[in-house]
Amino acid sequence: MSDNNKKGIWKVISASSMGTMIEWYDFYIFGSLAVVLSTKFFPSDNPTAAFLSTLATFAAGFVVRPFGALFFGRLGDLIGRKYTFMVTLLLMGGATFVIGCVPSYETIGYAAPVLVLVLRLLQGLALGGEYGGAATYVAEHAPKGEKGYWTAWIQTTATVGLFVSLLVILATKSLLSKEQFDDWGWRVPFWVSILMVFVSVQIRKNMHESPEFAKAKAEGKTATNPLKESFGNKYNLKFVLLALFGATMGQGVVWYTGQFYAMNFLKTVQMVDASQVETLLGIALVLGTPFFIVFGWLSDKIGRKNIMMVGMLVAILLYRPIYKMMYKTTDVTLKTEIVEKTKMVPSMKEIDATKIDSIYTTNKEYSDGTLLEEVKTVHLENGKVILDEKGKEKIETKITKKINSSDMALLIFLVFVQVIFVTMVYGPIAAFLVEMFPVKIRYTSMSLPYHVGNGIFGGLLPAISTYFVTTAKDAGDPEFYLEGLWYPIIIAGISFIIGMIYIDRKINTLHE
């Protein structure tokens, strides 16, 4: 490739990546703050139900992504790649900013979760149109035989978006007190997105249409009905289904297990301090992100299928051992408590004239440096303990662990390994999908299987897996924390079998 061509494609990569990263940042900020948001937009009388409701709202954004893929994919194949994903960027940024402005449940009641749900749906529609446009745009600028390498830069943007969301949250927390962040500071990361969107729009508006699409349009070879030509044509539909069930379905669950499920597991099952979780996840992401490029480049040499299938297989085999090790790393029943340093401080919080919360805060220290804070809240009304809907005493217990540096290092490594699985299945996927479909229906055809695989199979993972863990814990299963892994293991296993049998290496060069 000449220096001028390289300079040109780097401009394309920069403009596409910047916008896509911001869209992922906007989308992920909700998931990164799920624990906090559950206390703001949902009733606080049942924390577990509130958290599950927040995850369900988070998942709703994923469920509508395929509809965004159809709507914006059609536009992209009719009017062009550039203008379509400019619209998705503005829609995503606007919805994210408004989420940061929605009043809490205490202020406007059930209108709060309803508004947030609507905005999440708008975010999902926007993201459904963004990724396919950016990946297609970059691939159509890339030289023959190098699509894996160049599109892999787009693949990094989802992880970078998550990393930036964690960075902004940590920065906000460091500048504000714990009370300020809990009161209003959690809104700041949502507001910040509007500034990033403005910068990206300035960059994107100077971009040109992709050469392949411009050529097809000049020759009158664009689709007149992209949806019909994509899904009404049996030959093309076969490739759409193969892309979904043989690749993106498995890739989607591996992606969300390695990043979002790992984060939620550390926060809600292992009870590790949120700032420590965000820090260790951020470090693991920084270490793992370059491997998107490595595996994208390698897929140009040895094929997309080989790398993606190996990534799924090692994930299937190693998830349970990895999460078992993660859980045991912070399990205080395996640590030695320094009993003489244990302190319990009682306090009272008056809710109104008849209701009082009796709070007992216990701090424990362990010989390896682990610190544990247990806050037990007993809800009283007229001097008697309030009963829940099951007739049991309404007592809430919140545990937070601050882990030592060696445990931190081990958890960083274990999350990093999961990120490597992600890079193997996700690094080559954009080039794989682009090469399966012809230019005139590429945006529409590749967007749907990608967003069904990631949006539905992947996006539902946190809610489904958390439900499995909660159910197993209530049933007294000693290894309840592993039950949530059956969902990604089974889905990735099905995708692996289909991919190994039906994906042909020739697909790599089908529409180059």
Task: Give an overview in words.
This protein has about 500 residues and is α+β, with helices and mostly antiparallel strands. The protein has two domains: about 5-330 and about 405-510, MFS general substrate transporter like domains (Growth Hormone, Chain: A, Up-down Bundle), CATH 1.20.1250; about 340-400. About 70% of the residues lie in helices and about 10% in strands. The chain has 21 helices and five strands. It has helices at about 5-30, 35-40, 45-65, 65-80, 80-100, 105-110, 110-140, 145-175, 180-185, 190-205, 210-220, 225-230, 235-270, 275-290, 290-300, 305-330, 405-425, 430-435, 440-460, 460-475, 485-500; strands spanning about 345-350, 355-365, 370-380, 385, 395-400. Strands 1, 2, 3, 4 and 5 form a five-stranded antiparallel beta sheet that branches. Helix 13 (about 235-270) crosses helix 14 (about 275-290) and helix 13 (about 235-270) packs antiparallel against helix 17 (about 405-425). The radius of gyration is 24 Å and the shape is globular. The two termini are about 15 Å apart. The model has no long low-confidence stretch (mean pLDDT about 85). This is Major facilitator superfamily (MFS) permease.
Which key phrases capture this entry?
512 residues; alpha+beta; Growth Hormone, Chain: A; five-stranded antiparallel β-sheet; 8% strand; membrane; Sugar_transporter_CS; transport
Question: Any chance you could write out the topology, listing elements then pairs?
Answer:
Blueprint: H1 3-32, H2 34-40, H3 47-63, H4 65-79, H5 81-99, H6 105-108, H7 111-139, H8 147-175, H9 178-183, H10 188-204, H11 211-218, H12 226-231, H13 234-269, H14 274-288, H15 290-302, H16 304-329, E1 343-350, E2 355-365, E3 371-381, E4 384-385, E5 395-402, H17 405-426, H18 429-434, H19 442-458, H20 461-474, H21 486-502
Antiparallel strand pairs: 1-2, 2-3, 3-4, 3-5
GO molecular function, one term: transmembrane transporter activity
Pfam family, one: Sugar_tr
InterPro entries: MFS_dom, MFS_sugar_transport-like, MFS_trans_sf, Sugar_transporter_CS
